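Dear Dr. K.,

Following up on our conversation at the group meeting, I've run the structure prediction for Cyclic pyranopterin monophosphate synthase from Pseudomonas fluvialis. I'm pasting the input sequence below exactly as I used it, so you can double-check it against your construct before we proceed with anything downstream. Let me know if the numbering doesn't match what you have in your notebook.
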Amino acid sequence: MLTHLDAQGRANMVDVTEKAVTAREATAEACVRMLPATLQLIQDGGHPKGDVFAVARIAGIQAAKKTHELIPLCHPLLLTSVKVELQAEGGDTVRIRATCRLAGQTGVEMEALTAASVAALTIYDMCKAVDRGMTIEGVRLLEKQGGKSGHYRLEEQA
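The predicted structure tokens came back this morning:
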């Protein structure tokens, strides 16, 4: 049984030694809501700090690679791919989707969630001087594949 508790009930890192190496993938998302003028500034390329989407994309990728340093008990993973996509929606929202892949003994859900979260935080950081009312919402796992627990896909609520 996989657990983060040892026989004495203390937190520890799960031993994945006996788990099979399989292809694993996870996709997570986050949304940043902002004033329409802020999003327009980003899209027009007129932000004084530069290309907000490019910086957020790099920040998300770097964060995925360092998830084990940020989240206690996460395994250090050799990711084979990290993709961070940013899309403007509805005139006031940036949707971030992060997908992480590897061939390994444990999943990449935390890496995808971390990538999406840090990309969102980076947008906030770069734009806070012009829009302190931004919100980061809907950080969630959308899909995961591979491993013993199989395939998971978030079912949208009606």
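Two things stood out to me. The chain has one domain: 22-146. The domain at 22-146 is CATH 3.30.70.640 (Alpha-Beta Plaits).

Best regards,
J.T.
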